[in-house]
Amino acid sequence: MEDRDEKSISPLDARAAFWDMLESAEGWARAIWKKNPQLKEFYRMKRLAQVDNDLYSYDKWEKTRDSYRNGRRTAYFYDKASGKDFEKTIYANSKEELKKILLASARSFEPDPDDHSKVMKEYFDGRGIDWMSRGLPSCWQKYDEVCLNPNYDGSLSWDEEDSEE
């Protein structure tokens, strides 16, 4: 019978293997993204569902409306030219104002496997690790760990020219 110690790896080797996996997760996720165009649609749908959920909360809760009116909420934007993201305070006095800001925020960032900025590296690192452990999603509701609005009806548009209603 083999000695159990011969089959185990050292803690140093285990850490090296783990870091190697993490390093390769980003490249693997970028390749998977290119080969699976539905992931782009899943991503867009998930972001639009988040915007829809925020607009629903705005309609339903006075405290939420007050937060947006008084700049106590923020949105993240991505500047592709600089490769950096930034947080912007939201001041919105109407649902239409809020919708415009939230859609602009959502549209500002879309995963791009050919963009090697720090923000995209972090995104694909995270997705790669998630997909390696859980598998690729099979529907947009499973695209991320939390889907706050799984019954989203697709009423918002990713395309700016289609968003005017």
Question: What is the element layout, followed by pairings?
Answer:
Elements: H1 4-7, H2 11-35, H3 38-60, H4 62-69, E1 73-79, E2 84-90, H5 95-108, H6 118-134
Antiparallel strand pairs: 1-2
Helix pairs in contact: 2-6, 3-4, 3-5
Mean pLDDT over the residues: 89
SSE order, as H and E?
A: HHHHEEHH
User: What's the oligomerization state?
Assistant: single chain
Q: Tell me the span between the first and last alpha carbons.
A: 73 Å
Provide the structure class.
Answer: mainly alpha
In spatial order, strands of the major sheet run 1-2
Strand content: 5-15%
Q: Which spans of ≥5 residues are poorly predicted at pLDDT below 50?
A: none
Q: From the alpha-carbon coordinates, what is the Rg to the nearest angstrom? A: 20 Å
Largest sheet: 2 strands, antiparallel
Residue share in helix: 55-70%
Q: Which overall shape is indicated by the principal axes computed on the Cα atoms?
A: elongated
**Helix count, DSSP H or I runs of 4 or more residues:** 6
Q: How many DSSP E strands?
A: 2
